[in-house]
Amino acid sequence: MHSESSRSDENFVALNCASLPAELLESELFGYVRGAFTGASSEGKKGLLEVADGGTIFLDEIDQMPMEVQGKLLRAIEQQEIIKLGDTRLIPIG
Questions:
Q1: Count of CB atoms situated within 10 Å of the CB of 58
Q2: Please, are residues 64 and 21 in contact by the beta-carbon 8 Å criterion?
C-alpha cells in the first residue's frame, strides 16, 4: 500500500506494539528531550511519529498498546501534533 500511495517517497516506519513495555513504547512513538528520564540520550530522540511524518507508520498489534498510550496516540492523530516526553512544545506532524 505504502509503495503505491502518494507518500511512497517518504519514510515507512513499522512498530510491533506488543514487543515493547509501556514506558518504552511511549518514548519510541513520541520521542523525548534531553534529561526527560534516567538513561535518556543526552541529545534526546525523535519519536517514530516524527520520523514517519509525511510518510506511513504501521503499528502492528496496536490492540496490545496500553490504554494511556492509545489515548495519547489518538490525540496526536486528531490534532496532528505531538509533545515529546519531558517537553512542553507542540511539534506538528501529518
A1: 13
A2: no
Residue 17 is classified by DSSP as: G
* CATH 3.40.50.300 is held by the domain 2-92: yes
Residues 44-71: what's their mean pLDDT?
A: 95
Question: Using CA atoms, how far apart are residues 43 and 82, in angstroms rounded to an integer?
Answer: 18
Q: Kindly tell me if the per-residue pLDDT of 94 is higher than 90.
A: no
Separation CA 26–CA 4 (nearest Å): 29
Radius of gyration of the chain (CA): 13
CA 21 to CA 64: how far, in whole Å?
10
Q: List the chain domain ranges.
A: 2-92
**Strand bridging mode 12-16 / 56-60:** parallel
Distance of CA 21 to the CA centre of its chain: 14
Residue 84 CA to residue 46 CA, distance in Å, equals 8
Average pLDDT, the chain: 91
